[in-house]
Write a sequence for this structure.
């Protein structure tokens, strides 16, 4: 009688309550008929082991255990048509009779049938393997067992465990197998077992040996690839199961050693990542990095080799010592895994995860002194230096005080420097190009690599001469002795001495400018250019200047190099100018006394706005109509403790996906809160009544030509004969004044709107 459908799945049964009956063999029909009528059934709690069936009650049929090796055949048969309550049972045929096992239902009956069939097959294969030493028969029996496991309807981990234990024991006691038999075993075991369950230590050793020394390594690569993919995509405790990590290491080395197919390793890495921009498997990169680091340590570290091999020997058994002590050549390991790590660094999402893993330099000293290894890491470090994300570039600098970093490792004054500072120079140049706050980066370089800079200056490198001069001018060298040594080194170079004299002249002019005083407020006329600003600031003393308005001028980021010379600048208005990120970064580096900044309708983006986090004294900020994102706005609010008021209207940060304006990252609660929906908020006063930045006439100011605000033309005026002085009121506080013109309409709607609001 047939069992349930072939797609039914069962778990391996170990015990259960069954109705048991013994049937004596009858050759005549009448004997079979009377035997079925007089059949006696016993109720037992039957236990199934690897070798026998026994009952916990121990009476009747099960007064003695039934050994599985005595069974001749197992099947499901119809018991009797005279017993409608009992339709079929599992039949165990022996030489002296038949034992029937009746379960409570068809599903439980078939579960017992497949469990008995599996135990019976494993026992028979064990007997066959013990009786032969022929490699061909061994390969045939192992392949047969794997096929039975694949075709079985039992979906239980114990099935694969039994199969792996049997194969591992056989491989452990087999001294040598011919290449064709090995290839047959590999082809049978690889895709069937490794993908479904982690292999045993013996099986991993067998696969590792085949990857390292096998005559058909290409076959091993094809067969093992799906299994290795499965291992790397799942959470595997490589610290506990080191033999699986060793197997993955040997597979990657075999993959990279294929001369016939040099694209095998790149295809493997890109397949593990998937074609998308982001890897869908979060465990792939950590597992690859674990295999990579373990391979480097096993190849270079001689101090821990005995301890590491001892722990593996305890796990694998003392008779496997010769396998774990098989040390791979340094050149082979370095070439393979440095190529792999460079391929991993080509994926942007993996770079962000790799950087913190490599930040503490987790390699032995012997590897760092090996030139091919350091040269291989250079490409990865260049990838880190050129990344747009600051957290990735930060991994080149020390984790904490006294900890060595990658930037120090490749410096020309370090004994691990691979190319006399060429790589160091390239990485420093790249870091300076990517840095949003140059002064902060220069301070980090001075703190960690000052001796390297001095050495390059002594060797006559023009780039480092300029950099050392910038360090001295920016006053980022804190230690007095180091500052004097850097100064003497700079003056030892001809160009350095010239730069130092020019720096002294600039410092003297700046000191004179600050001492001579000058006005506290300055308003540049509309359409003024960078050249005009330079002429004005260089024409007289402006050391006391606190408020500067460049609103509605044509200035760009180039004027920032003149603005940073104002030591007391506190309020700056750049409304409706061509000011961009470069100038904003320069202001954030030098103008640390700024309290209010108006960037309304400028060209600044998130890249430059992030630099504002250095201005800890900033209290008022206008970012109306800029390219401000919600993420950067949240960071500004969190990192500017003194920020009391801001305007983010007409920006991405002001609206969520539904179009509702938000404040402090929270959407407006109701439509009646018009000021909140307008993106206007004061952290101290709560909701602000009216526009964040409102331009209105000063009531107590006397005008020679009458009150121009009563005219129909409310457009800013730049004509001297028709000037009307207005001051910017920022939450009730006076900001730098600027000139309004009335004889020419500007094409700026925001200006017209602001003027109209001020008039009201």
């Amino acid at each position: 009688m047939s069992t349930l459908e072939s797609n039914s799945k069962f778990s391996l049964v170990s015990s259960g309550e069954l109705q048991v009956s013994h049937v004596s063999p009858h050759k005549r029909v009448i004997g079979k008929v009377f035997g079925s009528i007089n059949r006696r059934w016993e109720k037992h709690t039957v236990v199934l082991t690897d070798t026998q069936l026994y009952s916990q009650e121990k009476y009747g049929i099960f007064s003695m255990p039934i050994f599985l090796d005595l069974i001749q055949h197992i099947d499901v048969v119809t018991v009797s048509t005279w017993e409608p309550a009992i339709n079929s049972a599992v039949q165990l045929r022996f030489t002296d009779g038949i034992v029937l096992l009746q379960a409570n239902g068809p599903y439980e009956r078939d579960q017992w049938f497949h469990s008995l069939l599996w135990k019976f097959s494993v026992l028979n294969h064990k007997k066959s393997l013990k009786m032969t030493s022929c490699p061909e028969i061994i390969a045939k029996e192992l392949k047969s067992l794997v096929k039975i496991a694949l075709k079985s309807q039992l979906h239980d981990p114990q099935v694969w465990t039994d199969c792996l234990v049997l194969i591992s024991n056989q491989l452990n006691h087999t001294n040598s197998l011919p290449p064709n038999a090995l290839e047959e075993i590999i082809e049978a075991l690889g895709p069937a077992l490794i993908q479904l369950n982690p292999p045993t230590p013996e099986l991993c050793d067998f696969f590792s040996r085949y990857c390292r020394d096998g005559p058909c390594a290409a076959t091993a690569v094809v067969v093992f690839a799906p299994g290795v993919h499965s291992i790397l995509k799942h959470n595997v405790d490589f610290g506990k199961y080191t033999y699986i990590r060793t197997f993955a290491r040997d597979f990657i080395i075999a993959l990279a050693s294929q001369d016939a197919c040099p694209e095998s390793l790149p295809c493997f890495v890109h397949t593990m990542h998937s074609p998308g921009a982001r890897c869908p498997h979060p465990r792939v990169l950590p597992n690859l990095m674990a295999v990579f680091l373990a391979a480097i340590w096993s190849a270079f570290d001689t101090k821990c080799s005995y301890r590491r091999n001892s722990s593996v020997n305890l796990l694998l058994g003392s008779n496997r010592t010769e396998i774990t002590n098989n040390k791979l050549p340094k050149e082979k390991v370095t070439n393979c895994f440095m190529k792999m790590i460079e391929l991993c660094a080509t994926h942007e999402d993996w770079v962000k995860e790799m950087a913190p893993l490599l930040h503490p330099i987790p390699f032995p000293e012997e590897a760092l002194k090996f030139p091919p290894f350091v040269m291989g890491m250079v490409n990865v470090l260049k990838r880190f230096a050129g990344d747009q994300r600051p957290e990735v570039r930060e991994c080149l600098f020390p984790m904490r005080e006294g900890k060595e970093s990658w930037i120090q490792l490749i410096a020309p004054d370090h004994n691990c420097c691979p190319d006399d500072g060429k790589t160091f120079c390239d990485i420093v140049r790249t870091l300076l190009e990517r840095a949003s706050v140059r002064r902060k980066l220069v301070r980090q370089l001075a703190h960690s690599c000052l001796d390297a800079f001095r050495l390059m200056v002594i060797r006559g490198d023009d780039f480092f001469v300029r950099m050392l001069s910038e360090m001295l001018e920016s006053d980022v060298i804190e230690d007095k002795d180091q500052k004097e040594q850097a100064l003497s080194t700079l003056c030892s170079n001809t160009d350095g001495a010239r730069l130092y004299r020019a720096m002294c002249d600039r410092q003297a002019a700046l000191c004179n400018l600050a001492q001579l005083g000058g006005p506290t407020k300055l308003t540049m006329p509309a359409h003024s250019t960078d050249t005009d600003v330079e002429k004005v600031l260089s024409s007289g003393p402006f050391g006391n200047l606190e408020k500067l308005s460049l609103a509605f001028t044509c200035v760009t980021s180039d004027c920032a190099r003149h603005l940073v010379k104002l030591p007391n600048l506190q309020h700056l208005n750049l409304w409706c100018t061509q000011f961009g990120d470069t100038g904003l970064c320069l202001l954030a580096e030098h103008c640390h006394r700024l309290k209010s900044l108006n960037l309304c309708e400028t060209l600044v983006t998130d890249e430059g706005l992030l630099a504002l986090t250095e201005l800890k004294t900033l209290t008022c900020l206008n970012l109306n109509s800029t390219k401000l994102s919600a993420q950067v706005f949240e960071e500004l609010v969190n990192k500017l403790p003194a920020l009391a008021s801001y305007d983010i209207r007409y920006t991405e940060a002001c609206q969520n996906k539904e179009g509702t304006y938000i404040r402090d990252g929270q959407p407006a609660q109701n439509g009646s809160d018009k000021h909140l929906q307008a993106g206007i908020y004061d952290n101290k006063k709560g909701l602000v009544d009216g526009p964040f930045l409102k331009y209105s006439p000063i009531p107590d100011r006397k005008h020679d030509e009458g009150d121009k605000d009563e005219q129909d033309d409310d457009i800013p005026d730049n004509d001297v004969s028709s000037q009307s002085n207005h001051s910017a009121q920022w939450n009730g506080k006076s900001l730098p004044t600027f000139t309004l013109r009335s004889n020419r309409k500007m094409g700026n709607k925001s200006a017209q709107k602001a003027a109209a609001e001020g008039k009201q």
